[in-house]
Amino acid sequence: MSGPRVNSFFLGNSSGVNFSVILSPGDEETGKLQLANCSGSERASDWNLDVTPGVNTSKVTVSLTRNLELCLPNATDCCPSPLCVLETLQVLACHGSVRLAQLLIQVEIFANSSFAGNVSENATIIPNQAFQPLGSCPCNLTAGACDVRCCCDLECTPDLKQLFNGSCFTEVFGGDVNPPFDQLCSSQSMEYTPEWFPFLCVQSSLDNTPFLGYFYHGSISTPKVPAFTIPLQTSPGRLFTGYRQGDPIITEEDEYFTIPQQSLAGHCVGNAPVAYLQDFDVKCLTSLESYKEGLPHHVRINTGTADFIQQNVTYRTITDRGKFITESESLHPAEALCQNVTFAEHYAFTCKDKNIEQVNVTVFLGSLCDGETLTQRFTVEFLSSKSTNGEQLLENPGYQVGKAVRAANINASDPLGTLNIWQPAGRGLCASATYTPVLFGVDSYSGCVLEVGINEDCSLLRGNVTEKLNSLIHATHIGKRDNSSHSDPDDWVEIIRLDPFISDTNVSTGNLKGFCPDIPANLNIQIMFAEVGAVQGIPQQQILAVQISYSTVLWQFQCGLSCGNSLSFLPITASVQFIKVPAQPPVRKTRYYRIYVEFDCNQNDVCLQQLFYPVTRFYTGEPYSQCLAKGLLLAFLVLLAVIMSNPWFSKLWNR
Q1: 443 vs 211: which has the higher pLDDT
Q2: Which of 36, 155, 447, 458 gives 516 a disulfide partner, CB atoms 3.0 to 4.6 angstroms apart?
Q3: pTM for this one?
């Protein structure tokens, strides 16, 4: 233990159990600890013991009450040395005089260090790197060693330089950080020099070159936290201004509020944080040997304004275990080991704006025996405090990637609809396949296998396949947004259905058995969406149109040496494609382009169009007033030269 507080858990029923903390000094000769008894209390010297009871788990907290600041002269209640506390504690759980559990804590706490001296007010001025010359030797990349082929490296001795004297790095990287640039009047490096180059060339020293800030980008970018790390949260002393969508929910002890969730690998992670305004429904497999209790339900949750609320927990008992027990190795006799565990947990967060107002938890308990496999279910939903019918709360009304697409049957008694794809299991037969909802932004492709006999009627086969495909879609409309209301028809778009194409070719099934053309075996779902705005920087995505079409195949019975009365398999598939519509029509491509490189000032160092650049506001080398004065003076001299070069001026001058 190296901090002022430590937490532990007591497993089992804590009713009638007395907890105590005892300061246990060691024997000076042998170093052994003294044997503690159950006569202690919840306070020992500077230590306090707090116990928070639960259902089958009790949280035990041991905290230090003394000051950990380093002593100043003539001060008390402080730490006389940097090693402030070096003690041994024993925490006992007793039922009467019987010791049930014992916890040994070795404490080693150092004093809080702080700077107590005079701070100089002379601030270090960091020059703007955009206007500073490049480093004198950019190829010097290794400190304390000679870099090969870097002749400007001062750490290279003359003997080492002889090894690569003829192969040194050249140009800027090799140390020539101020080379003559093409715009200099004295530079003759240009292959083609225009006739007007002497009039536009630059007279400047090499200290003022285009290579100033050569490796400087000029923009400040905020550091991005890698995806595999968790950003630090607000400390307890700082003001908490509410949750945003996607922020992890924080507990009273500045820790994440965690519920088991599925990872990208498919297995469940027990300490996954719960994100604000993100619902989920996960299932996790566990057994009695690997079962672990989750976060205790007495943990208080930060509402978003530094206040804390308690969870409202309701316990229920599971009567039908068949929905959760997915595998049993053998029948368990009456004396088999069983334990009362959590089968499912449902969390309902009632929110308003950026704050959490209430948390209702429903825990379903049941008996799990040794050898059985349990499918635990954890669900989280966020509800609006303004709604009276339990409507979900969505800070961003648009769809987010991974959310289920909403479907409805408009003008029906039951407006709730479904849009699913198959989730095959076992042999992949359509008869045993289950359904999974279509997720927004996730292109999907799934299918199942239909058993077909050799004497199958083609018309009946087409009808059977069409019925299987239509079972995926029990809806007439799709919600434009994730918060589409069933009472507002403008919040929904009608599904465009294209019937499968059936050719006019009449094939006699009596002559050709096991051969059927135009079987609508493929269902194509195309969803068009666009970004219509943003809420707090998160794009708001809206569905514009939905189209359903069919692709037909030619089915032919497949058999081996003899067909007999065997069955053949017909795979039928369903695909979902999301098509993003740009906000503006893309530029139409043409086959002919005219390149204006010669007149493009961004691609030429010397540009005739920038003849008067020094007198424009884009030139920042000198104050604008001086540039304007010099420009007017130059214009006056040019005008005077033109006037004096006129013949009538010479005649007037001679007179």
Answers
A1: 443
A2: 458
A3: 0.42
